[in-house]
Amino acid sequence: MTKDEIQLLEAYLSKTFNGTPIELRPQAKKADMAEVFINDEFIATLYREDEDGEVSYQFQMAILDFDLTDASA
């Protein structure tokens, strides 16, 4: 991912998550992947897909069962 893509994706994700500051950290060994952080906490991975000239992004976030216990508070 390019720096411009990362900036656009950070802005899009921040807007999507109601203004929450989002940081994408590209992976040196995987040019099509970045890790997603909120307040320095890892929350997800983001993959760039380029198929037949059409670009899309896959946001993958794992939610562990013990994380759900805090959701009702």
Explain the overall architecture.
With 73 residues, the protein is an alpha+beta fold. It has one domain (3-62). The chain is 19% helix and 44% strand. Strands 1-2-3-4 form a four-stranded antiparallel beta sheet, with helices on one face. The N and C termini lie far apart (37 Å). 7% of the residues are buried. The mean pLDDT is 92.
Features:
73 residues, alpha+beta, 1 helix, four-stranded antiparallel sheet
Which structural class do the helices and strands define? Answer: alpha+beta
Largest sheet: 4 strands, antiparallel
Tell me, briefly, the overall form: globular
Helix content: 10-25%
Sheet with the most strands: spatial strand order = 1-2-3-4
**Number of E-type strands:** 4
Q: Uncertain segments of ≥5 residues (pLDDT<50)?
A: none
Q: In sequence order, what are the helices and strands, one letter per element?
A: HEEEE
| Strand residue content | 35-45%
Query: What's the number of domains?
Result: 1
Average pLDDT: 92
Determine Rg (CA atoms, Å). Answer: 14 Å
End-to-end separation: 37 Å
Total number of helices: 1
Blueprint (SSEs and pairs):
Elements: H1 3-16, E1 23-27, E2 30-38, E3 41-51, E4 54-60
